[in-house]
Amino acid sequence: MNSVCYCPGLDSGNFNIGYGGPKWSPYAQAIADQYEVIVPSYQTVQLDLAGTALERKTVLSDRAQFDQLIFGAHISDFSLDNGSSGQQVFMNVDDLKSSRSWVTPTPVGNAPLSSFGGIGISDMPILELPEAFFLPSNTRMRHAIFNLTNSLATGGAITWIGAQLLRPKNGRAPSQVTLSNGKVVNVGWRAPLFASVGLGRETYSAGDTTFVMTAGSRYLHYTPPINCDCEIHDVHINRSAEDGTNELLVTRLIDVGDRSMWSPNNAPINSVMGEFTKIYPAAPFPKPYILKKGHRLQISVQNNNAAMTINDAFCVIRGVRLCEY
Amino acid sequence: MIELAKPKDDAQYMEFYASIKPVKFGNTPLWTAAGEYNLASYQIPRELSYVAVCRVECYEMDRTAAAADFGLQLAPPSGTAYWQYQTSAGVALETLTDRNAPVQRLLDADEYLFFTGGNNLVLVGNLLASPDANTREIRTLVYGYNLSSILASRLARSEVEIPSQ
């Protein structure tokens, strides 16, 4: 049977090289190769926060007619109150089909919005996910908002940016794909990982959580152990450097389970962690680091400011879970 | 320290033995007023990889003739203490531990900290004023080892952390 492809090619060779374009991972490319038509996708989810104290809200995305690969996100439309760019609004994400949460349950079960998407006021308005996320057709994404630091932000929206995948070659969405290295993997094998860690001494009062880094003080934190290997790609912190304090925050990352991973030096925090005002909202590792099953990252931070206390700084370790689902 | 590095054979044991050198350092500032005092300082050799600090002993002593507590070794004064890299002129470069740590965490305590070569390492005490306004000596003695990188890579992973409360 002859099939007609309603997919006009570009005279330039069917790809846009105007600015280099996003780079597709082998996993995303292997999935996309199972489809005949790929169309850019922008799906905006209005969070529409009311600004009440310790607000909790769950927002579902619309159902999409086609399978999607989600590559990144953009945050917008917050008010000018505290947390106005989403850096003090906290969220967890899952999809209603798998119910696998993106954010680890400990030590903080939600991650700042600025670790999910780029902010309109920053130099990088789109933050790329560590790995493309495959969202099956007719599956809604659940956005669980919790303003755990009581930021009273209002409004807000998140726009998921990716590609719609049309006309699967085998008549249905693939359950397995073959990577460029020949390995056959399940679709959904590479799942997003967000480990959110509050920095400083934790205090909690009537639902309001605060992390405080006193001037001159040093703190130790740990990510939770994950039940499978993970690739750690980058690290985000939700603090702005506008007041200059980030220059005097120093940090050190260690894999607790690896005897040889050690450094004698503390590094300025922005050399390790990107933040929302920077062109790298999540600063990438030189090479993704494989955090073995059961291992944890130890994060030590020291606030070398002479007199400035820093409140509600959260770092988010971002990466990819390599669980066999 | 060599045993802790678990040399696999005699040849490696001798290699480690050649890579380690015990050192002692410490100062004796005169203390009366509140303020920062350099309790111990050591310019770590530029060619050296690391120095491991293993123990800090510190006490105050009144050397004023006819003082009631003359010659008595007393606990370190109250205040806070921290390790710091300074320039050769004494200007603070980088504070390495909690500036707010009470003195007992760092002074007169076992230790297991590693510092890199080429730096001026200083143990700073930010002390309260002498309660009776008498001038006393603060004697500090730091025990450590100069280490090569091959030893430090095996030992430093278990470096102590001194977190704030």
Brief summary of the model shown:
The complex is a heterodimer of chains A (325) and B (165). Chain A is mostly beta strands and 325 residues long.
Task: Please describe what this structure looks like.
- The complex is a heterodimer of chains A (325) and B (165).
- By secondary structure, chain A is mainly beta.
- Chain A is built from two helices and 23 strands.
- In chain A, strands 1, 3, 6, 7 and 9 form a five-stranded mixed sheet that branches. In chain A, strands 12, 16, 19, 20 and 23 form a five-stranded mixed sheet that branches. In chain A, strands 2-8-4-5 form a four-stranded antiparallel sheet, with no helix packed on it.
- The model of chain A is unreliable at 1-7 (pLDDT under 50).
- By secondary structure, chain B is mainly beta.
- Helix content of chain B is 12%, strand content 43%.
- Chain B has helices spanning 10-17, 103-106, 149-155; strands spanning 20-25, 30-31, 35-43, 50-61, 73-74, 79-86, 92-95, 109-116, 120-127, 136-147.
- In chain B, the strands form two sheets. In chain B, strands 1, 2, 4, 5, 8 and 10 form a six-stranded antiparallel sheet that branches. A four-stranded antiparallel sheet of chain B has the order 3-9-6-7.
- In chain B, strand 6 (79-86) and strand 7 (92-95) form a beta hairpin.
- The radius of gyration of chain B is 18 Å and the shape is elongated.
- The two termini of chain B are 30 Å apart.
- The model of chain B has no long low-confidence stretch (mean pLDDT 91).
- Classes of the chains: A mainly beta (325), B mainly beta (165).
- At the A-B interface, strand 15 of A face strand 8 of B.
